[in-house]
Write a structure and sequence with these properties.
The chain has 364 residues and is mainly β. 0% of the residues lie in helices and 48% in strands. The strands form 7 sheets. Strands 1, 2, 28, 29 and 30 form a 5-stranded antiparallel sheet that branches. Strands 14, 15, 16, 17 and 18 form a 5-stranded antiparallel sheet that branches. Strands 23, 24, 25, 26 and 27 form a 5-stranded antiparallel sheet that branches.
Length: 364
């Protein structure tokens, strides 16, 4: 069972959370948070010295015309350190460059057609070996080509277009990316009625051309999902980790930690953080900050169905969950995101109780 711990003992300092306004499609960034609207605009909240931004979600000056313009029920965008936000809209994988609030909005770029509406995109700015350059990489769920076919993952690479990521005969329902020793590792959850295979493969990015993909390896076969289950991934000293909320049996529910590693292999080691009760949705996010891998997750506070929920942070070492600390309490956590800052800390964002929040996480 998880247990609370003092933030200081875990080497973190949690600053006062900022209430940014009504629930929105929000994602944490290295400088604060980013929101997209139903009109496929994006606007960012840049925090300076820990101070609150000058605007709030839902005010008239925000793009999208206030709360009615927010994409609250949509998936949040994926943000890269290349300065782009990626998401799926109207059956297309799209992106916008994220500019300073005073600049004119960047154009919406359509990167690929045939993307699954309502699905989440994973994106990273891949570092090119031996250079200071980066190329953006995004992976997404593509529509089935014909009735009876699997929905499969595809990969888009800056300057090279799209290619298949899922291998023949496999599908994908959720995707994640994490930095690895040789570039990136892509993780694909294939949630089915009776089981949930988890696939992983290495992604190497050169200065030009398409990605070089490693073998498609089934690293874990999980139980059947409850509702729509998302996978998260993050770097660690031992290689990428994947985090998936599952019900391992009919009487329990928890968060699995999979040691995917720099070279994915069969039968990845799995460890669990069990929850007091089930949860749907059960959002989770992870990042490398303050020199350690941390995972943020929402869980029930007690077994009773009406119990409030907790947004917790816990360090992960060699795939094992450490003691947790509470970052927020409430009901109906709909989204969680965490992004490392340049100073080693992070911004943590979430949506709960119909509101959007962001909170600074600082290293000692």
């Amino acid at each position: 069972m998880p247990f609370p711990a003092d933030a200081g003992r875990l080497g973190l300092k949690l600053e006062k959370p900022f209430d940014l306004g009504p629930a929105a499609a929000i994602v944490a960034t290295p400088t604060g948070a980013l929101v997209r609207t139903r009109g496929d605009e994006v606007f960012d909240f840049v925090f300076s010295g820990g101070a609150a931004p000058s605007k709030r979600i839902g005010r008239a000056e925000d793009e999208g015309g206030g709360a009615s313009g927010l994409a609250a029920s949509s998936q949040p965008p994926a943000f890269t350190r290349g300065g782009f936000a990626y998401w799926v809209t109207r059956g297309n994988l799209v992106r916008r460059a994220v500019r300073a609030s005073s600049a004119a909005a960047a154009p919406l770029e359509v990167l690929a057609e045939g993307a699954l509406d309502g699905s989440r995109v994973a994106a990273e700015a891949a570092a090119l070996a031996g250079t200071a350059k980066r190329r953006d990489v995004a992976i997404y769920i593509a529509l089935a080509e014909k009735n009876g076919d699997e929905r499969r993952a595809r990969i888009w690479v800056e300057g090279a277009g799209t290619a298949a990521l899922s291998s023949d005969g496999s599908g994908a329902s959720s995707v994640a990316l994490a930095p690895a020793a040789s570039g990136l590792v892509a993780v694909m959850l294939d949630a089915r009625l009776a089981m949930s295979p988890v696939h992983a493969r290495t992604v190497e990015i050169g200065e030009s051309g398409p990605a070089r993909l490693g073998p498609d390896v089934v690293v874990f076969i999980g139980p059947s999902p409850e509702g729509h289950t998302e996978v998260a991934a993050a770097a660690s000293p031992e290689g990428p980790l994947a985090f998936i909320p599952f019900a391992p049996d009919t009487s329990s529910f928890g968060l699995s930690s999979l040691m995917v590693g720099n070279e994915p292999h069969l039968d990845a080691h799995v460890q669990w953080r069990m929850y007091p009760n089930g949860l749907e949705p059960a959002p989770v996010a992870a990042a490398l900050l303050c020199g350690r891998t941390w995972v943020a997750y929402a869980r029930p506070s007690a077994p009773a169905p009406a119990s409030p929920h907790v947004l917790a942070l816990a360090p992960v070492e060699k795939g094992a969950f450490g003691p947790e600390l509470s970052a927020a309490q409430g009901f109906d956590f709909m989204a969680v995101s965490i992004s490392a800052r340049e100073d080693g800390g992070a911004w943590l964002s979430w949506v709960s109780d119909g509101r959007s929040f962001v909170r600074a996480v600082r290293c000692p």
